[in-house]
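Homework help board

Subject: predicted structure for assignment chain

Our instructor gave us this sequence and asked us to write out the predicted structure in token form, then describe one feature. I got the tokens but I'm not sure how to describe them. Can anyone check?
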Amino acid sequence: MSESNTLVELVEQRLKNFCAERKEQLTAIEPELGQVIDYIQDLLIGGKRFRALFAYWSWVSCLNATDLVLTEEQKERSAMALVDICAALEMFHAAALVHDDLLDNSDTRRGAPAVHKKFELLHQSSNWAGSTSRFGQAGSVIAGDLMLGWSSELFDSGVKRAPSGEIAWSCRDEFAKMRVEVMAGQYLDVLEENAGPTRPSEEALGRANRVMLYKTAKYSIEAPLLLGAAFCGTSADTRRGLSAFAIPLGLAFQLRDDVLGVFGEPEVTGKPAGDDLREGKRTVLIALTRAALNSSTAKIFDELMMNRELTPEQIRLLQETIRGSGALEKVEQMIEEYGNESLLALNQLALDEFGKSQLEMLAKKVVNRSS
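My token output:
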């Protein structure tokens, strides 16, 4: 079994055990609270574990390139502590998905009902009083908030076993920065969906790039890499080099997500066809499309993008418009260019060669994925 598979198994087992402990705690208060944990556990099953893997292989890559000298026993203890940090990243990501699906009014996640829809179905099947949708909203907000708190618990469990107090505080700084940046990116995303159509179209691409940077690139790729590096006391120069690798890769990651959100196969992505179009996402793909249209076509395009009840025919029309504008081709070219820029930056880093090869494999998976 590969190290990557071993790490994924350890992280998943840690999350499973953690949720079991919290379920026992919550059901002692009220048995019906067990339903909340069940929904959380369902969401935590599966996923690509990119964030955990980037953190782990960053740690491996940097460990032999630092002044920190650890015995084999100390390395093993640090690796197990890092499992908690990786689990914290996955718990935080899952919390973000819960809130993101609610904000986007997205009904599915990985081919199953999103958490807010599960709470709606619970309300409906139980014949409870009040609004089904409001119960779903409330339940998902609470579930997401619980997971944010639990991600901090898992993170603290790991960093308190850091090789030194200085390393622990460095990791805490990176984790805190990640939380602020992803929330900022989430708000900018919501802002763009609502304010974007009222603002100058020539500014759309710049605004979409800013959302992409903070909502995904820094949080999904840069933060895990910097946390892994910080956990072995890596120098500031090395971390800057890792950021140069991470940012273009994170941008390619989000651009691929944007393409899949419009053209992805539902049976592969676990989302309905054209889901980003239904949600009115003002992505780079949409900004490039909008910039290529004449005024009359752009007006129709904008009206459809503001419609949250698109028919399959309207989605196909939008997809054809995006293809015909050349935007899809441009985005694919951008993905390739960002991917190449990222790998060039990685190759210039003086790190453990085996760890670097694993980071390169991960980078290629991020760029070329189909879901």
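Reply (TA_rk): Your tokens look well-formed. For the description, you could write something like this. Residues 241 and 349 are 6 Å apart (CA to CA). That's the kind of observation they're looking for.
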